[in-house]
Please model this.
Amino acid sequence: MGARAGIVVTGTEVLTGRVTDRNGPWLAEQLRRRGLDVGQVVVVGDRPDDLRSALAYLAATNDLVLTSGGLGPTADDLTAEVVGDFCGRPSAVDEALAGRITAIVERLMSRRGWRVDPAATEAGTRKQARVPHGAVVLEPVGTAPGLVVPPAEGDGPPVVVLPGPPSELQAMWPAALEAAPVRAVLDRAVELRQDTLRLWGTPESELAATLRRVEDQLAGLEITTCLRDGELEIVTRYAPDAAAAYAHLVDAVRGDYAATLFSEGPDVDTLVAGALEERSLTVATAESCTGGQLVARLIDRPGASAWVPGGVVSYANSAKEQLLGVSAETLATVGAVSPEVARQLADGARARFGADVGIGVTGIAGPGGGSPDKPVGTVHLCAVGPDGVVTRSLVVPGDRAAFRKRTVTVGMHLLRALLLGGPPA
Amino acid sequence: MGARAGIVVTGTEVLTGRVTDRNGPWLAEQLRRRGLDVGQVVVVGDRPDDLRSALAYLAATNDLVLTSGGLGPTADDLTAEVVGDFCGRPSAVDEALAGRITAIVERLMSRRGWRVDPAATEAGTRKQARVPHGAVVLEPVGTAPGLVVPPAEGDGPPVVVLPGPPSELQAMWPAALEAAPVRAVLDRAVELRQDTLRLWGTPESELAATLRRVEDQLAGLEITTCLRDGELEIVTRYAPDAAAAYAHLVDAVRGDYAATLFSEGPDVDTLVAGALEERSLTVATAESCTGGQLVARLIDRPGASAWVPGGVVSYANSAKEQLLGVSAETLATVGAVSPEVARQLADGARARFGADVGIGVTGIAGPGGGSPDKPVGTVHLCAVGPDGVVTRSLVVPGDRAAFRKRTVTVGMHLLRALLLGGPPA
Model:
């Protein structure tokens, strides 16, 4: 492999899980596209010693180090100062930069109509305008400037200092790529491809046997497999000169898993959205146990309003009857958690929203509500479209959150099987 | 601070963001409750060298090291072997353990009705049954056993090796706590409290001024502040002997931010759920731009079926009319994105689900759909209940994902203000 990069994500709120980091994965993907391989992401709290030792750890084995977070106005935001010290470059206030930050803060405050304490704002602004000697300043997108700090001694990697809010970090990224110390690293990088094969219904241990069988044809490939929510992903990274080895892998997987290979690239969400768009079809949902997560996942994609008129979340049986036309008799005889009600939910969603496709989900997410007949995790799904009907009944293991996530993925595969065929849902 | 722990999360799928890590934060919280402070979480891909250097980095400054992931049957699952080597303890197959894993795998396969290749299963099983000499085995919850590996030389921290799937890791955790090398570390730990104050509508820079003013009364507190989705969280960790300092902090925040302090502990979701439960009220939703994320967030809590009969996601105007009774005339005159429609959505949700409280959300998530009058990010919310009506109109900055997340949080504060008063939504 060519050049490598390491990432430090700062923030006690990330370390403790109150905030989920989106920056580490985003930066890793941006860097990979430019041929820089990311081997480690370190999350540290807002403590100078921990940040310093994380920088030392990453600087030892990487050509570039990036940080996100810790650029705010409060005392626990200490990244710029610590990075400056680490690189042997003492910091001082950049007066012109302080003036630009002040103007930004005043505009923000007045737009939000928040009362402002000028003294508080000034102390914070001057803190944010401190720049290590010789560093490249990346202009603020929010209020905090970013930095590219080259090592004073010339023998370590440059450190790119970026803000924590993902929208600010992403907007600042093009400027970081243009900074001379970063360009020098990128010039040493070589292309690194990443391709994905996706199976639905194959256990990881079987795939392991296939990989062992063709092992000697796979030189130059870095293959990782991941089973989640019933999907088995095979992600391969390789330099362009290993393209023939990747073709061998694809052949082997096609040969052994024709019945479960559902994609040689796009994920199930992209396949479903593409099929709906191409055929100008719409889909409406009727959910109980997944509580809106299925419609939310469909609507996650920009432009979804063209193919999702909406959905109903019907926890109460009365809502199932009145909003979706589920029969009171069916509810009384076989119960809400049944294949019959899943079908009526799908039909109801289709009819009420005037959609081409309807999907219904009914089950028991737990922790309460189970019975010997219908244990927690029992779920029935049904998708109805112009070409037919696809159903699935199963018992999903795991807790409430795992149940909902897995069930929503099964729902996406129901739509995929209905619209595109391939492995059964 | 007393004893410290460091966590390594393995898996290229986590490093690249295809899977979001839930284990690092969960373990950090479990350890904090037992007085172990977690300073770093390192995410590494499935490469032995990177795992080895991460272990060395964490072992240098911690009393306990934990790993999650990399215990599966495929070749890229290499944690147990690398940890054994790192601790100076070579691994060998534990035949009795191999037998127990085989029985588990056969049961799983037959339950799922998957076709099984016995040779593949056996190779994977024997790999999973390899145990470093002298390590404590934690019985499998899925198919993979965990391990507690003491250092061979006696001068490093013990390493706890746990599986990647969160439900397996969590189920195995009590056994890990019982292992003798872990108990020895826990015996050295002292209680570490964590308390949170929550503000709605105060900028971080103002809070910084308050903290600076009372700085000399806050000795022994580790304070971190975090602004997200408009909420400002002040999280403080402290040993029991700093309780008086924490009381000073609470007094200062109460004094300066009486108008925006909405909680001295529970988050807004807990406050809303508690108010609904206590007063035996129900709430129904009608969303457009948030696409089901508001109802999904309400239903995230176990037991939510008692207070959420359901919700409608109505992207299409026809769905707003037919499912929620929004007037065609209002839609034609002021448009779907308007305070009037937000009100009619709230009324419609309340009426159609027979709920005590209805909440309506209508806006433009983008990237398309904006206009000079109604730019992307425009959103109107309305909550109607037995005691009155609360509304909010705003323009939310950021991309589609940020818009939806922030808008859902505003929705939760609308319900909080309606049910409990306090800072306006």
In short: The two ends of chain A are 39 Å apart (CA to CA).
